[in-house]
Design brief:
Elements: E1 7-13, H1 16-32, E2 37-43, H2 46-49, H3 55-58, H4 66-73, E3 79-83, E4 95-100, E5 108-112, E6 126-128, H5 132-141, E7 146-148, H6 154-162, E8 168-172, H7 173-178, E9 187-189, E10 203-208, H8 212-218, H9 224-240, E11 248-255, E12 258-266, E13 273-281, H10 285-309
Parallel strand pairs: 1-2, 1-3, 6-7, 6-8
Antiparallel strand pairs: 3-10, 4-10, 5-8, 5-9, 11-12, 12-13
Length: 311
Amino acid sequence: MSEGTSVLRIATRKSQLALWQAEHVAALLRDAHPGLSVHLVPMTTKGDRIQDRSLAAIGGKGLFIKELEVALEEGHADIAVHSMKDVPGDLPDDLVIDAVLARADPRDALLTAQAQRLEDLPHGARVGTSSLRRQAQLLAQRPDLRIEALRGNVDTRLRRLDNGELDAIILACAGLVRLGWESRITARLEPAICLPAVSQGIIGIECRADDANTRKRLRALNDPATRSVMEAERAFAGRLGGSCQSPIAGYAILSGDRLTLDGLVAEPDGSRLLRDSITGSATDASRLGQDLADRVLAAGAGALLDRLRHA
């Protein structure tokens, strides 16, 4: 997009949540730049098309963004809007995450048919989630639970709970709130019980690295505090080589200019949780993430992750 162009195109998935996020970014851009015309370019990704298998089985979370990145590189769109928890650690050299919005609630949500808390679920309760991270932490608390795969849009997942197929499901608080489903949340799982996914609750905006005009427009949307915690969490997962096959969690918080990062690597069956934390200057966010990853690796996560990668 050249200087002076008054149209900006947003590549987005067609899911209800992705469209909400793209429309939200479009509204923020219109407010920040009066006169700018913003259009959505909805696309279906491989991750959206394949619904009958787990993400781990079909190649990981990057399947939700590849087509959007191709649209950027080929000039069919100017920016792409992502849930940052879906974005792999390694970006193409010609693309950048140029802005992130202020983080929404990063916690996981428990939605149940009857019980009010995780500990209230009946013995052997059927719990739906396709996240190995959630599965491992749930089973660490409740080894009796029966974990069942859960894919599809929010409506589809809620239907499986409402029709009695499942006793509970786990979803992200942020997505439920954004879609107007906050009333369905039975309980928010605190990080001490279920550490969030890396960058959960963060919306990121990707663009071409050489598109100076778009990058200038995106500056108004960037939240520095959120970027700092995101960089720490992504550095942690990046050093570990995290993927959908790996039960990895990372959650950072800021207090003034100090950043505290909690990180976790787990056995999928919850029999072993390797968890540690680190605190330091927020200006060293990426280094803190890497240092914490090195500590967790030294504690045994390296062998665990290697075994899972070759399983």
